[in-house]
Amino acid sequence: MLLSCGSNNPKLTGDTTDRKWWKEAVVYQIYPRSFKDSDGDGIGDLKGIIASLDYIKGLGVDVIWLNPIYSSPNDDNGYDISDYRNIMKDFGTMADFDTLLSEMHARHLRLVMDLVVNHTSDEHAWFKQAKSSRDNPYRNYYHWWNAERGKPTPRWSFFDVNSDAWKYDTTTNAYYLHYFSRKQPDLNWENPKVRGEVYQIMKYWLDKGIDGFRMDAFQFVSKDTTWPVFPPGYDKHIIQYYGMGPHLHDYLQEMNKEVFGRYDIMTVAEGAGSTLADAMSLVDPARHELNMAYHFEGMDVGNFDPNYSLPDFKKVYSKWDSAFAEKGWISIFLGNHDQPRMVSHWGNDDPRYLEASAKMLTTFLMTMRGTPYCYYGDELGMSNIKFDKMSDYRDIATLNKYLSLRQTGGDTASFIEFQKRSSRDNGRTPFQWDNSTNAGFTTGTPWIKVNPGYPAVNAAAEEKDSNSVLNYFKKAIRLRKLNLTMVYGNYTLLDRDNSSVYAYTREGEGKKFLVLLNFKSSPATVVLPPGINLSKATLVLQNYPGPSKNNTLQPYEALVYDITP
Ligand code: NOJ
Hints:
Helices cover about 30% and strands about 15% of the residues. It has 17 helices and 20 strands. A hairpin with a 4-residue loop joins strand 7 and strand 8. It is globular, with a radius of gyration of 24 Å. About 50% of the residues are buried. 1-deoxynojirimycin binds near residues 216 and 270.
């Protein structure tokens, strides 16, 4: 673990904020399978990440969040763990991990690991024991329903072909619960032994020196084990029914006492319930649970419609900002491994607009309050691959949904079209290092196709071009790093109903900034309050060369002004 940071940052003028390194950090998320392959097997690995640390450090980020790297049969690309204390063979060895961590810390980069403990793999030793007999000591590590009681109360599953979260197992004539795939049985958190095992696993990694956890699907761990019947259509409101179960807070407080409270770490759960109050209850410092909320309301705006409503988007981010203005802390992100690419989703991947819109979105991430999470490749402007054929897809979510549609006679053609905008595989293609074969990701055959846009969009070319998306990304991070206003300053939305321009100020720590972002492909005008005079403002970041100082923005233009009085 690194020493408490903040010391390299400029001094605060209004010292009212509760400074924390994880608030001031910029997180870079790596999907290890797709980052850099060092041994030619077509799969990214730890040695590949180690070799790329200078590139990552050069971005200006502080924290790397690694998607799961533990032993796994890979039904869900590592989110099905068979051994929490070992490294997946595809990715390397524990010695590689130790090198990665020490090389990161030598560069003052922190490491946050994914902790997947709502479920294990069905190939985990606990589950193998549990399913072997009803009186096995590990039986209660999971949720079972004995078949002589009849069928269990229906539960919906994210990845099951039949959407059925109960899988019948012949060995003991019982069903087990799996909210995700059949190979991801849910752990029974009511069992104190399970919780104790998890705390030991967490300490194992923390004692190695890692700097925090991103806790996968954690809002689902506590279940009402009286298994009440849910009303028809509950599966359309799954967070409401599955999230924030009866003992979730008890478990988090226990975990905090047993583990978190003993280390200076970043703790973030995936998902934050279905209301602002739920989210606050997870991160209110007085409750001693987690330190950062990661909500999905922003991601849900428009359901992948490229013509999503900008006022709706603003409404979500403004609402979340104001709810956490006084206490608690949130994350800001526009993409991750479960989402399509940021630029295709929220910007415009037409070659005419790709660069400008990728830069504009980066400006948004770096000028909002909350910890920004940047997803690997977004710093280059990587876009959706938009596969035409099902055979190109690798993701269990897409593959099983397709099978299910075929079984039920659903509209597979529209499904394939929709996947071009929504599939998780869009965000999982190999990192584009250079313009050599396979974008320099591997000398072998990549596990998933490389985006054909790589000859233009790649790190080597962008490093050399001072106007590239990559160099803009570095500038935007620098702006945030030099101005704590961007981290802690108050956010005020301007011109609320403007359907093209997102305008806001950030004020505090003795400074005031104005951010103007055109989210549309046509020029757009912003209406500013009389107190803001652009002719007196200093432009500190811009994504077009030489913008004129008036209120009309070019397509996807981004402008940040210092308007400190
Ligand atoms: C959420 C993860 O982000 C996703 O990739 C995974 O498939 C599910 N949880 C199940 O672990």
